[in-house]
Design brief:
Radius of gyration: 23 Å
CATH topology of the domain at 95-194: SH3 type barrels
Number of strands: 33
Largest sheet: 6 strands, antiparallel
Number of helices: 4
CATH architecture of the domain at 95-194: Roll
Shape: globular
Distance between the termini: 20 Å
Length: 401
C-alpha cells in the first residue's frame, strides 16, 4: 500500500467523520449497583445524570488462569507478564527488557560477589537491562549503572520458549536455572550467549503469595481468558454512592485518555498505516511515528504503549483494535499479544523447507469476513501471508496461504 494511498484514505475518513454524530448520552439508560460485587442492580438512570454526579472511576482487568488443573481469577496487579518486562513491544525477539527484583539486594559496582555495592535494589523494582555477563545483569537506576545477580531477578528469560544463539538456530527451552537456560535435551546455555528469544505471552507469574486464593509467590499460570470493566462511582440523590459500568462504544462514546492531537496535526506526520471502523467512521487508528486513536473523527489520543512506532493497524466490526502484534478487546484501554511468536516461527520454518526466519516483522494486517484475520510476516527472506480465526485469547492455529 503506497504512502499516497494511505494519506488519501485518512483524508477521506476525516471528511466522512465530520458528518457522523454519536448517540446522545441523555438517551442511554445505565444500571447502577450498591457495590461492584452486587449480583443485581439497585436502580437505573440515564448516563448523563451519572456522569454529572461522578466522583471517581477505575479500570479493573482480570484473567482466568490455570495452574495444576485448577482455574482461578487473577487481577492484573497480581501477576507479571512478559509484556511487563519489555522495553519495546515491537522489538520483542531481541529485547533484553527489564528485570524484576524478587527480593531486596545490593547493586554491585562490578559483576562479581566481592564487588562494592553502589545502590540499594528493592523488591518489586523494575530496572532496564543494559547487558548480561557471568550471571549478572548490568542495569540502570536513578541515572547510575551497576550489576545485579540474576538468581534473585525475574527476567524475560523466565518466559522463554525458544532461543537463538550464534549458530542461528532456534532451540526449545524447558526453564531458566540461575544464569543458564536448560534446553529440552538438558543442555545448559549461558544467558549471555542468547542472541534472540521467543516468549510465551500466555504465561503469567504471580507477584506475591495470596493465601485467600491459595497462590504461592512466583507461581506459574496459563492465561485462558481476559476480561476488563471500567467502574465509576457517582453520588445520586436518594441513593447515595452507586457503582456503574462504562457503556460499550456501540452504545455511547468512551471517555478520553490523553491530551489529543487535531486531525491537521496528524496529517503533518509521516503516515504508515490507517484503519477505520467499518460501520462507525468516526472511530479510527493511525500509525504515524506513534499510534493514535480517535473516537470522534477530530481528536486523536496517542496510545502510550506504541510511542514513536510505525506498525500496521486494523479495526474489526466488533471493536477489536490490532496494532502490530498486539490486540485490544476493550476499545484501546489495554493491549495484549494475540499470537505466539514461537508458533509463527515454527510454521514459517516448515513452510520454507527448514529455513529459519532471520526476523519476525509484521508487514500488514487485515480483517476478513467470517471472523478471520490476515497477517503478513516479513521473515527476512520473504513475506509470508498467514490467516486465522480470531476467536480466542491467543490465536493458536494459523494457515499459510
Amino acid at each position: 500500500m503506497s504512502p499516497r494511498f494511505i494519506r488519501l484514505t485518512l483524508v477521506s475518513f476525516c471528511l466522512v467523520s465530520f458528518q457522523t454524530h454519536a448517540l446522545p448520552t441523555e438517551r442511554l439508560a445505565v444500571y447502577f449497583y450498591r457495590t461492584p460485587e452486587a449480583p443485581f442492580p439497585s436502580g437505573q438512570t440515564n448516563l448523563l445524570a451519572l456522569q454529572k454526579a461522578q466522583k471517581q472511576n477505575w479500570s479493573q482487568t482480570q484473567f482466568w488462569a490455570e495452574a495444576g488443573g485448577h482455574k482461578t481469577l487473577l487481577d492484573r496487579s497480581e501477576i507479571i507478564l512478559d509484556l511487563d518486562l519489555l522495553d519495546h513491544p515491537q522489538n520483542s525477539i531481541e529485547s533484553k527488557g527489564f528485570v524484576y527484583l524478587l527480593t531486596d539486594q545490593w547493586i554491585k559496582k562490578d559483576p562479581h560477589p566481592k564487588s562494592n555495592p553502589v545502590l540499594q535494589g528493592l523488591e518489586g523494582d523494575k530496572l532496564r537491562v543494559l547487558m548480561i555477563s557471568d550471571g549478572y545483569a548490568q542495569i540502570e537506576k536513578q541515572g547510575q549503572t551497576g550489576w545485579l545477580h540474576l538468581s534473585s531477578c525475574l527476567t524475560r528469560f523466565d518466559f522463554a520458549s525458544f532461543i537463538m544463539t550464534a549458530n542461528k538456530r532456534w532451540l526449545p527451552i524447558k526453564f531458566r536455572q540461575g544464569a543458564h537456560l536448560v534446553l529440552q535435551n538438558e543442555q545448559r546455555i549461558p544467558l549471555e550467549q542468547v542472541k534472540a528469544l521467543l516468549t510465551q505471552p500466555d504465561l503469567a507469574i504471580s507477584r506475591k503469595q495470596i493465601e485467600t486464593k491459595k497462590i504461592s509467590k512466583f507461581q506459574h499460570f496459563r492465561l485462558k481468558q481476559v476480561q476488563e470493566e471500567k467502574w465509576n462511582v457517582s453520588e445520586l440523590k436518594d441513593h447515595g454512592l452507586v457503582f456503574w459500568r462504562e457503556p460499550s462504544p456501540q452504545r455511547g462514546p468512551a471517555s478520553p485518555a490523553l491530551t489529543p492531537l487535531s486531525t491537521e496535526a496528524i496529517l503533518k506526520r509521516p503516515i504508515y498505516s490507517v484503519a477505520v471502523h467499518p460501520s462507525q467512521p468516526q472511530t479510527a487508528l493511525v500509525s504515524a511515528d506513534g499510534v493514535f486513536l480517535t473516537r470522534d473523527g477530530q481528536n486523536w489520543e496517542e496510545l502510550e504503549n506504541f510511542k514513536n512506532q510505525n506498525v500496521p493497524v486494523t479495526i474489526s466490526a466488533d471493536h477489536e483494535y490490532f496494532v502490530g502484534n498486539m490486540r485490544s478487546r476493550n476499545q484501546g484501554k489495554s493491549f495484549l499479544p494475540f499470537f505466539q511468536f514461537e508458533r509463527i516461527a515454527n510454521l514459517i520454518t516448515q513452510s520454507q523447507r527448514g529455513i529459519i526466519p532471520r526476523q519476525m516483522k509484521i508487514s500488514s494486517l487485515e480483517i476478513l469476513p467470517e471472523n478471520r484475520i490476515r497477517m503478513t510476516i516479513d521473515s527476512g527472506t520473504q513475506k509470508v501471508p498467514l490467516m486465522a480465526k480470531r476467536d480466542s485469547f491467543l490465536i493458536q492455529k494459523w494457515d499459510v496461504y
